[in-house]
Amino acid sequence: MISTKYFGLGLVLLVLLIQRAASATNIDYGVALSKSLRYYQGQRSGKLLPTQSVQWRGDSGLRDGSDNGIDLVGGYYDAGDNVKFGFPMAYTITVLAWGVVEFEQKFSSKNELENALEAIKWGTDYIIKAHPQPNILYAQVGDGDSDHACWQRPEDMTTPRTSYKIDAQHPGSDLAAETSAALAASSIAFAKSNANYSSLLLTHAKQLFDFAKSSRGLYSDSIPVAQKFYKSRGDEDELLWAASWLYRATNNGSYMDYIGSVEDTGDIRTSFSWDDKYLGVQLFITKMVLEDKLAYDGNWADYRDSFEEFICNLVQEGSDNVKRSPGGLNWWQPWNNLQYTSAATLIATIYSKYLATAKTSIDCYGENIRPKDLVAFAKSQVDYILGSNPKNMSYMVGYGTNYPKQIHHRGASIVSIKKDPTPVNCQEGFANWYNKNADDPNVLDGAVVGGPSDTDEYTDARSNYEQSEPTLTNNAPLVGVLAKLV
Length: 486
Fold this sequence. Notes:
Blueprint: H1 9-19, H2 21-24, H3 29-42, E1 84-85, H4 86-109, H5 113-130, E2 137-141, H6 144-148, E3 163-166, H7 173-189, H8 195-214, H9 219-222, H10 227-230, H11 236-250, H12 253-261, H13 278-290, H14 298-314, H15 338-358, E4 362-364, E5 367-369, H16 371-385, H17 410-413, H18 426-434, H19 465-468, H20 472-485
Antiparallel strand pairs: 1-2, 2-3, 4-5
């Protein structure tokens, strides 16, 4: 790759695009957007809608919550397993709603707004059920260890469906705040089409934020079974994130006062993810500064400076650039890297919009980064994911012809219950399906897998879960980016 020490960002991106021009010419962002939303139908738990288009799926988890006498039917399975993890699910809903809030007209122009809102509502309907009282929130259904010990369709589950909650005595301010952010962002997304539902979401969002502030503590400490899978590292970012969304939803200055009262601005982050929302907060404050609603001084300046340093690192013009594969993919870690790539790409895409509105750019150590440069960066990452890469492989299942065919996903890898209703027991699934060296019998359209290594290598095998497992969090940021690019 050409060093940015001698060439500007624009030239580097141009070279990358030229190198992959042949495959990039066939990329259809509209098709990818449709499929990325369709993926969430494949992850649904509960009683499916008559309009369900992913026909190989059936009803499942219909007794969820019964162990605690509460209806927890619905929501989304997390990844290739059958557990409903509340922390990444809430983040997923926040990010899906964020994409709609920023690019609503783009979704509408492609007739995807209704599908996007439906994907959000499947999650928010479940969250409302999971929040039966102001200071109670159900955080998880199913146990990761017992679930992962079996390979079964969700329709056949024989593993325990234990439900776990946080409350004042067992706090989870990180989870409560992230769930508040999800509902506040969703309330904005639904404001035009369903005012009553929007108001209901906002009521729950306010209650959850108050709960988070009054009962501090990490949810994964209160619910130890979550620690191996989604252990939280802190709650300050989620509290700030929730306050940011509540301010956007209400224009109530008390939420800005809360942000202003917190000294920790997050410093320079390395990623945006289900466990680290500081970049989202920094972007929100930067937006407010660009709009002259906040002065560029003190902590507000720290937020913006830290955020723009991340952007510089992201586009390879910073002091600590994000690692990039030889083929041009921004890369963070071996396990499920594309969740970080897609999240960072959404951050850059939204910032390009804010910069364009403010008619400005940012300076990265003497290199002028304009809105169109950030869009070009986003396009380079999306194009890579959709097949413009050294392996000419799309990492979105069902997009194109060369995509992962043996993904680490129970439902996709086992014959549909609609074709063969014979129950698949716990270990039989491993023997007859997991270890079967054959393409998945069901195509989980739109699923974005973990993705390739830092050398652009990928092994299409169910056992290669670090690379081949799709998750809710992989897709969510990409939905908004695709809407922008169509």
